[in-house]
Design a protein that fits this description.
Largest sheet: 4 strands, mixed
Helix content: 25-40%
Structural class: alpha/beta
Bound molecules: shikimate-3-phosphate
CATH class of the largest domain: Alpha Beta
CATH superfamily of the largest domain: Enolpyruvate transferase domain
Radius of gyration: 21 Å
CATH architecture of the largest domain: Alpha-beta prism
Strand content: 25-35%
Number of domains: 2
Number of helices: 12
CATH topology of the largest domain: UDP-n-acetylglucosamine1-carboxyvinyl-transferase, Chain
Length: about 425
Amino acid sequence: MLEISPRKRLSGEITVPGDKSVSHRAVLFGSIADGVTKISNFLNGQDCVSTISCFKSMGIDIKTDGYEVFVSGRGMRGLKAPDTVLYTGNSGTTTRLLTGLLAAQSFDSVIDGDDSIRTRPMDRVIKPLSMMGADIIPSDGGRCPLRIKGKKLNGIEYTLPVPSAQVKSAVILAGLYADGETVIIENIKSRNHTELMLGMFGSDCGMSDGIIRVRHTDKLNAAEIDIPGDISSAAFFMVAGLLSENSEIILRNVGINPTRSGIITVLRNMGGDIMIENIRGDFEPSADIIVRSSDLSGTEISGDIIPSLIDEIPAIAAAAAFATGKTVISGASELKHKETDRIKSIVSELKKANVDIFETADGFIINGGNPVRASEFDSFGDHRIAMAMSVLALNARGTSVIKNHEACGVSYPGFYEDLFSLTR
Ligand code: S3P
């Protein structure tokens, strides 16, 4: 539980921690590559720590030194049968990517996670993997725990029914082990970190717009992976900087992969003063982002841009509460399947703050501009709800309380230190 009083101004600079999606993948591919993979700017959040511990349970030697991680890969067939349940904590990415990888191993395994993971749909990965020949027995309703019998798999052609990078990545991973070619068709683009990282590990898988071709792969080579800052973490500071008066903040080394950067487009459309400088990096581009106080107006968000900002919708909702006019978010029913049902979490918590918000079938509508009142907000254990409500509280009238604020440790352990280092 944390109290937050309104602050007038934000200034200074921070470097947000490494990208969560990229950190998971670097450990995963490092574990099945030959040689030692060096990862810099690794995210030491609870989710990525869960990924490390799962691979350690499968015999991989992983050493952490601050933000550097050294993964001693044992090759494509080097994982050992775990002698315990692989516990993925709160991490959907660990759970779904591991399912794809484990389906193709020569041993059996069981994956389980926390109460939130046990509510999240796993049938979306079980279905394509079963088409490949996988043997995965879920608990009731296609949920965790999952009992996976390692099998020989065959390539398939699969059109993703939902734009999900976790599903895509699970099928890519299984495809690396399968006989024949695996073809994945994406009608709406989801984040492409797995495809980019495979290139870093020397895979010759072919990618063209919307079609990913994966071939059986006997060997990946260890790589040096420098992880950019997580734009999903930076999003909370972008919104905080725009909302606070007379503010200017600099966010250093933020990943701006186009499959992730929809938040910048949307906040600019709302009238946000956001500048991008010093673009660098060829694997995953990053940049410095300068944010200045702005008067925001409502906007409409729907369609193909949704996957590129799906994790930022809690932050966008906080911005919309202070914007003039209506913000409509639609086509975002995937929010129901995140760490919490984020449509419900956002609507219930913003209502407490006197925000005029109502739930729709696949999103919500906010009529911005009501005075935003302090309240006792609950994160429901969802990291992004904790951080979104904290940013809202900074600008609300009165002192707020954030219950379960420590949930931010899933993706951003130092969030509150960074936030309060900017408040004046
Ligand atoms: C992620 C993909 C997205 C995202 C999640 C991380 C990934 O989920 O919301 O936080 O690293 O692949 P979906 O695949 O369910 O869209």
